[in-house]
């Protein structure tokens, strides 16, 4: 190896001089990987942020006077509410299913993941349909008791928080469960041997030790909350996203809209940095080795209460919306279902599949780079590379599209004299642009589970492998990949399901004829035809269930 | 029964399904004593420890701490109320807390102002006062071990449980640290029970040792007696090196072997004319150039001050001999040996 | 191994690229697929000209056109609401079209003064009421809904929907900003409940008595009544004594960098012809833009009414002003 390299450099003295003249930070291969991924995500983000070169003073004055205050407050409530309730649901259910034993635990432990397959806006629509003044429940109440005025308003801050939490808790649940499962009972026993009760041990040891995983899940849930447009629209709840769209579509100022979006990015970035700083020198490789010490047996009322709790969550977050969707879909099935659905399905699966693979591999390389180089540049790159999840999908889609269109124009100008191709599109209208956009958007979703798994890999393992003469890539394949398998499977499936549900990027960047199930949902909902949207939605949910069930069997759930 | 015992196990049993892991086991430990359960892996010793700690439910019997029952098949006092401390095999230090915070973790019931001094006192004892602000991952294995001990001792538990506490350390550190920890425990007048598969660890730490096999204690005794007066073939084999040499009982109290006749107390059940196995430790066979008895060197292991020779007798039986290392002989060479045995340990052939 | 997989992947990613056939018309549409595909199919059948299309929201479609610039494959931009069409023309994404057929078929107030876009169907935004609670005599104008007598009885859809932005923009064009702001304030004060995300939900609320009256697009009413004919709902045509019912259009314009302008104009002209108008309007229970053709009998059954004749382009011009006005009035 070494001699080959030297030979090469001797033959190409200029190149070697060039390489050594590069700033030191670019010379490390892995840091370069981190930089490349960060750049891919950064380009669309930069397009968005570049809007600051076009100050929209007048629009901002208006926003400042009449809009900003409300929407900041609304966004704050939403983030606090969704944050608190996804934590409560995700952590408690994660702990119960990972460490305790109660009736139905096995089935519930994967059933609790299922809500992830249902797009949040669908849950929102179903809940409003059922629980609003015009819905069957309140209708029945009025018939039976004459009034339903006491019934809490579903179209309210509480309602939005409820629906979003039910749709997003699985992120926290999945990662928390994973952390608790690998932690095992050992840390808790250590706390008990030091005179702490189980409850105290949970809060003082088990919970803090699972912190990076829980925070990882929480960050995903909150970024999705901030970026969400569909759910808040159904509730007509004004947040940053709705203001962004209103400024864009209503006031025709994409620049001001982008500036609002940049503000959102900055908020998220600050949050991420704060979390990182607060962790400082702490490490989270588990206390002691994982040992099969059995589960905490819940007895009597406690056991059944646990079962009931989990069953209620699964029912409300998954079964109720699914049943409603099935009823609607059955009504329109005969009319709407045709052979094109096979095509929608095929496109959906193919896009989600390829995007999941690229994103998971990207996340792996990125996480690996972060592990090898723990310097601030690499860390910042990683942060940037995962920020796309916090941007509203359409804004990111525009960012990607503008960047690619520019590249296309430049390439065409260069190539036209040589190759005599007529004006047209190179990258635009190809799948590449879609896949890059998906990756930019969902990198965070893939990165979190992979990086969590990576945290469990002791660095000494690398040293061992290197002493055995194994290079970086081989090491990744032979040593790390088997250990990271669980995290990778989780990443693949989360990204897969998320891409399936994704709407704005798919809409904007799909090639002609590449309609997916999500596009179908859009066509129907854009005309307010929610019942007809149920058919593609239900197909989407059912297809999404398959990988989730797979995850529960082969992912790191069953550790 | 001795009611002054700090720890008392009365006929305890533990099964997982059909598998009986601990069978009808009893032991007592007086205050200030360091006891040890020694045995190969899978003998049930760790289960005994976890039963004492209260991590597992008892199938039969009773566990008493300071005379009070803490566990029966129907009742189990929660771990945190038993006043036991535990040092885990993998230390189980909390990675999100500093050394100081780890040691202070069990001090939540004492007054706040007293916690700091108590933590520092223990860190002084284990020699890690400097490392108070470090995180566990910044310490070496031996240092982590000492933090784990300090943490377990901090709340002054009535009983300290140590689960293979040195198994993750290299042998040199293991011996030094077990001596150190013993001194720490003795200085705190702590009562402790140690579980290990390593006899050197047991010998270095414990006052009394129980050798466990198949869920039962084979022999509860001092280290000296376990080595020199094992009561079963298993103990003889498991504790220390040695071979069993067959011989014939020629008269009451006299056995004839390939190495000559031996006198000693024999088990009551042994009759004249029967064949018995005599336990021979390497130090029972002394190298003596003058001896007429010759044996061929089959194998040698250099151990610094001594060399351990494996010797073949003319009859084909093999014995071990520990010889000062300046007697350096070659493989295949014949050397003179003689028996120098204080008390004969004989087991009847079954 | 790895590189082989990679190259296979890259190949599959790149090969699915768009090739622009010479005679086909490429449409970017903000009108949903189920409303346009049958028309394209009919057009292709009649003329032999193939149509390729992609659907999305107006905003991204326009951004897409802007980013693609000269390289765009699109020939025609099809969208709902004059506000969006005005915005596309204003951003220089469309080009003027000279066509005698279009001039003859589309009335002046339903198209761009510079012929950059043409309204192809009319959508009326009118008043809907609960027939158990109100008589037509109780109702008169949009402005009247701001009067205190409707306190707690009015339901509105969100101001984020372009239909309401256009409605308010047209009121500004007619009455000026100050007057309009008073009216919008009055509406907000009269709201019975939080504004709704869509017209259908709003009508359902009126039907069960959460409120008495609201403002909706007629085709939503048509769709709902088709499914649930028993609902106690009826349409009312306001402002018949003065300016007329607020109308908007669904329309299209030829893309500035179109490679097939001839085909695009041909498609536009076909839309304005009898078959095109029928399908354009009837597929979604709208009114034909070409006055020569009557609407679908069901739609015609709702009665004839006087249109507001101000050019719908005003809706675009004043849309941003309308949005700000509604923000000030805290109309969510």
List keywords for this structure.
heterotrimer; B: 350 residues; alpha+beta; Rossmann fold; OB fold (Dihydrolipoamide Acetyltransferase, E2P); 2 domains; six-stranded mixed sheet; five-stranded antiparallel sheet; C: 332 residues; alpha/beta; D-Maltodextrin-Binding Protein, domain 2; ten-stranded mixed sheet
Describe the structure.
The complex is a heterotrimer of chains A (559), B (350) and C (332). With 559 residues, chain A is mainly alpha-helical. Chain A has helices spanning 2-11, 13-21, 29-49, 57-99, 105-111, 120-131, 136-145, 157-183, 186-193, 198-209, 211-227, 230-235, 240-250, 254-279, 300-336, 340-372, 376-385, 393-419, 431-454, 460-467, 472-501, 504-509, 517-525, 530-554; strands at 100-101, 296-297. Chain A has one domain: MetI-like fold (Orthogonal Bundle). Chain A is built from 24 helices and two strands. Chain A has a two-stranded parallel ribbon. The radius of gyration of chain A is 25 Å and the shape is globular. The two termini of chain A are 39 Å apart. Chain B has 350 residues and is of the alpha+beta class. Chain B is globular and about 75 Å long. In chain B, strand 13 and strand 14 (260-263) form a beta hairpin. In chain B, the strands form four sheets. In chain B, strands 7-8-9-3-10-11 form a six-stranded mixed β-sheet, with helices on both faces. Chain B starts with 6 loop residues before the first strand and ends with a strand. Chain C is an alpha/beta fold and 332 residues long. The termini of chain C are far apart. Classes of the chains: A mainly alpha (559), B alpha+beta (350), C alpha/beta (332). Chains in contact: A-B, A-C.
């Amino acid at each position: 190896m070494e001699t080959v390299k030297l030979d090469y450099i001797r033959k190409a003295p200029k190149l070697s001089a060039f390489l050594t003249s590069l700033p030191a930070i670019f010379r490390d291969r892995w840091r370069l990987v981190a930089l490349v991924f960060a750049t891919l995500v950064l380009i669309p983000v930069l397009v968005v942020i570049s809007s600051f070169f076009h100050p929209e003073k007048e629009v901002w004055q208006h926003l400042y006077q009449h809009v900003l205050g409300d929407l900041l407050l609304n966004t704050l409530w939403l983030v606090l509410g969704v944050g608190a309730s996804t934590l409560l649901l995700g952590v408690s259910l994660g702990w119960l299913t990972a460490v305790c034993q109660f009736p139905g635990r096995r089935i519930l432990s994967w059933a609790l993941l299922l809500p992830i397959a249902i797009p949040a806006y669908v849950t929102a629509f179903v809940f409003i349909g059922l629980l609003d003044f015009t819905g069957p429940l309140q209708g029945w109440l009025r018939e039976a008791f004459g009034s339903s005025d006491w019934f809490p308003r579903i179209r309210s801050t509480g309602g939005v928080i409820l629906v979003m939490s039910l749709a997003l808790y699985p992120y926290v649940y999945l990662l928390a469960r994973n952390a608790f499962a690998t932690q095992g009972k050992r840390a808790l026993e250590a706390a008990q041997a030091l005179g702490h009760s189980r409850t105290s041990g949970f809060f003082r040891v088990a919970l803090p030790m699972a912190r990076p995983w829980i925070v990882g899940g929480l960050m995903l849930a909150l970024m999705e909350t901030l970026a969400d447009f569909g759910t808040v629209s159904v509730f007509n709840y004004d947040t940053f996203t709705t203001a962004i769209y209103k400024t864009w579509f209503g006031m025709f100022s994409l620049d001001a809209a982008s500036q609002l979006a940049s503000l959102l990015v900055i908020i998220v970035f600050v949050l991420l940095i704060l979390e990182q700083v607060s962790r400082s020198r702490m490490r989270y490789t588990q206390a002691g080795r994982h040992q099969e010490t059995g589960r905490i047996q819940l007895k009597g009322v406690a056991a059944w209460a646990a079962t009931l709790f989990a069953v209620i969550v699964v029912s409300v977050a998954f079964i109720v919306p699914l049943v409603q969707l099935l009823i609607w879909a059955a009504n329109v099935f005969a009319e709407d279902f045709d052979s094109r659905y096979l095509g929608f399905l095929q496109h959906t699966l193919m896009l989600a599949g390829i995007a999941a693979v690229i994103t998971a591999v990207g996340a792996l390389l990125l996480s690996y780079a972060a592990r090898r180089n723990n310097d601030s540049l690499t860390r910042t790159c990683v942060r940037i590379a995962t920020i796309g999840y916090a941007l509203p999908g359409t804004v990111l889609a525009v960012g990607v599209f503008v960047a690619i269109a520019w590249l296309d124009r430049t390439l065409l100008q260069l190539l036209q004299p040589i190759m005599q191709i007529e004006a047209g599109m190179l990258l635009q209208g190809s799948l590449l642009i879609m896949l890059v956009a998906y990756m930019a958007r969902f990198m965070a979703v893939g990165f979190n589970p992979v990086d969590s798994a990576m945290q469990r890999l002791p660095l000494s393992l690398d040293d061992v492998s290197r002493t055995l003469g194994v290079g970086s890539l081989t090491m990744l394949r032979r040593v790390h990949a088997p250990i990271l398998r669980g995290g990778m499977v989780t990443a693949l499936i989360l990204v897969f399901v998320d891409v399936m549900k994704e709407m704005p990027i798919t809409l904007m960047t799909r090639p002609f004829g590449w309609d997916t199930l999500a596009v179908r949902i859009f066509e129907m909902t854009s005309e307010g035809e929610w019942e007809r949207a149920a058919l593609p939605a239900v197909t989407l949910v059912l297809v999404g269930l398959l990988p989730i069930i797979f995850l529960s069997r082969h992912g790191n759930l069953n550790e | 029964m001795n009611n002054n015992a700090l720890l008392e196990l009365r006929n305890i049993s533990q099964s997982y399904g059909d598998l009986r892991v601990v069978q009808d086991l009893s032991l007592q430990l007086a205050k200030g004593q360091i006891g040890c359960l020694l045995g190969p892996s899978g003998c049930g010793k760790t289960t005994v420890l976890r039963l004492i700690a209260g991590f597992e439910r008892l199938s039969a019997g009773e566990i008493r701490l300071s005379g009070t029952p803490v566990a029966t098949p129907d009742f189990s006092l929660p771990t945190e109320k038993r006043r036991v401390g535990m040092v885990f095999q993998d230390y189980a230090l909390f990675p999100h807390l500093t050394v100081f915070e780890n040691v202070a973790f069990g001090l939540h019931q004492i007054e706040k102002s007293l916690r700091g001094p108590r933590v520092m006192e223990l860190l002084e004892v284990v020699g890690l006062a400097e490392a108070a602000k470090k995180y566990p991952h910044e310490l070496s294995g031996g240092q982590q071990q000492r933090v784990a001990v300090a943490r377990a001792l901090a709340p002054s538990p009535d009983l300290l449980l140590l689960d293979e506490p040195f198994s993750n350390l290299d042998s040199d550190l293991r011996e030094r640290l077990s001596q150190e920890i013993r001194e720490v425990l003795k200085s705190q007048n702590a009562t402790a029970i140690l579980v290990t598969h390593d006899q050197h660890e047991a010998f270095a730490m414990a006052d009394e040792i129980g050798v466990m096999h198949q869920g039962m204690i084979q022999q509860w005794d001092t280290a000296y007696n376990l080595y020199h007066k094992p009561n079963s073939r298993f103990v003889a084999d498991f504790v220390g090196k040695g071979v069993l040499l067959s011989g014939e009982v020629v008269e009451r109290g006299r056995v004839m072997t390939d190495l000559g006749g031996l006198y000693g107390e024999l088990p009551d059940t042994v009759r004249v004319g029967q064949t018995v196995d005599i336990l021979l430790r390497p130090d029972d066979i002394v190298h003596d150039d003058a001896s007429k008895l010759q044996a061929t060197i089959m194998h040698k292991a250099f151990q610094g001050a001594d060399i351990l020779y494996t010797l073949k007798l003319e009859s084909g039986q093999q014995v071990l001999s520990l010889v000062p290392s300046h007697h350096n002989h070659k493989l295949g060479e014949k050397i003179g040996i003689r028996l120098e045995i204080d008390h004969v340990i004989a087991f009847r052939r079954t | 191994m790895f590189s082989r997989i990679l190259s296979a992947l890259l190949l599959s990613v790149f090969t699915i690229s768009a090739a622009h056939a010479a005679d086909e018309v490429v449409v970017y549409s903000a009108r949903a697929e189920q409303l346009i595909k049958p028309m394209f199919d009919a057009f292709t059948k009649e003329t032999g000209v193939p149509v390729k299309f992609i659907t999305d929201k107006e905003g991204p479609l326009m951004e897409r056109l802007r980013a693609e610039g000269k390289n765009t494959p699109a020939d025609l931009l099809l969208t709902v609401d004059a506000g969006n069409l005005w915005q596309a023309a204003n951003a220089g994404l469309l080009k003027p079209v000279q066509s005698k057929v279009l001039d003859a078929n589309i009335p002046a107030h339903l198209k761009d003064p510079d012929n950059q876009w043409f309204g192809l169907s009319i959508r009326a935004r009118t008043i809907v009421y609960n027939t158990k609670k109100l008589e037509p005599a109780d109702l008169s104008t949009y402005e009247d809904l701001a009067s205190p007598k409707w306190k707690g009885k009015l339901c509105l859809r969100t101001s984020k929907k372009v239909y309401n932005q256009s409605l308010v923009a047209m009121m500004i064009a007619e009455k000026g900003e100050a007057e309009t702001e008073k009216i919008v304030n009055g509406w907000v004060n009269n709201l019975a409940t939080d504004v709704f995300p869509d017209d259908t939900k709003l009508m359902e609320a009126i039907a069960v008595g959460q409120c008495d009256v609201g403002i909706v697009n007629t085709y939503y009413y048509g769709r709902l009544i088709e499914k649930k004919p028993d609902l106690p709902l009826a349409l009312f045509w306001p402002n018949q004594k003065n300016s007329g019912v607020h109308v908007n259009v669904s329309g299209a314009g030829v893309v500035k960098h179109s490679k097939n302008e001839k085909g695009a104009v041909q498609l536009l002209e076909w839309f304005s012809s009898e078959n095109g108008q029928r399908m354009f309007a009837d597929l979604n229970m709208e009114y034909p833009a070409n006055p020569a053709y009557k609407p679908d009998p069901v739609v015609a059954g709702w009665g004839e009414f006087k249109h507001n004749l101000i050019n719908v382009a005003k809706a675009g011009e004043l849309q941003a002003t309308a949005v700000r006005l509604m923000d000030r009035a805290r109309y969510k």
